[in-house]
Specification:
By secondary structure, this protein is α+β, with helices and mostly antiparallel strands. The protein has 5 helices and 9 strands; from the N terminus they run E-E-E-E-H-E-E-H-H-E-E-H-E-H.
């Protein structure tokens, strides 16, 4: 008897839930990876009234998040939330290479100091992330930084928790898609 090999087992892996909570609406997406190709598995969207008070907006956002875990086709509890303008500021900054090569958090302190100088955020405490820009021949910015008030991050994580989801990351919308997979 000859044994025939079956095709390699295909994976059908779902991504964590990508969540965009905004002032005028909310969107959620979940991708499926099969044989190295991503496809849309689940999508949900809702529009909020523009005249909604901050308290009513938070209630609508929480209701949307709860809907993702109760009776929807979304799978899992892991979520990555993306924030966008006006909750996030972006700054192209120039930090000397010698500073960036320092260890012990000194480069982060230098970047934080530069962002404190540039920010228009009213809140003094903020969270930030940064990435290198492609090198150019002339002098100019070598980093792109995104920053958001710490209370916004904490309220977003709390909102997800209240809705039964576990917030693994908070990201800036332009950079979120590539990192939430």
């Amino acid at each position: 008897m000859k044994l025939t090999a079956w095709p390699a087992r295909t994976t059908n892996r779902l991504s964590r839930i990508g969540l965009d909570l905004g002032q005028f609406g909310a969107r959620a997406v979940q991708l499926r990876q099969r044989r190295g190709v991503y496809s849309l598995a689940n999508l949900a969207s809702v529009h909020f009234e523009s005249s909604t008070s901050p308290e009513a907006l938070a209630a609508q956002q929480t209701e949307f998040v709860r809907g993702l875990t109760n009776g929807s086709s979304f799978s899992g509890r892991s979520v990555c939330v993306s924030l966008s303008l006006p909750d996030v500021e972006f700054h192209a900054i120039d930090i000397p290479e010698l500073v960036l090569q320092q260890s012990g958090g000194q480069s982060s302190q230098a970047i934080r100091f530069e962002l404190e100088r540039l920010t228009t955020l009213n809140d003094q405490s903020f969270e930030f992330g940064y990435w290198a820009l492609p090198p150019v021949r002339t002098l100019g910015a070598n980093l792109m930084a995104a920053m958001t008030p710490t209370p916004k991050v904490l309220s977003t994580v709390s909102l997800c928790s209240d809705g039964g989801l576990e917030c693994d990351c908070v990201d800036a919308t332009p950079a979120a898609l590539g990192r939430f997979l």
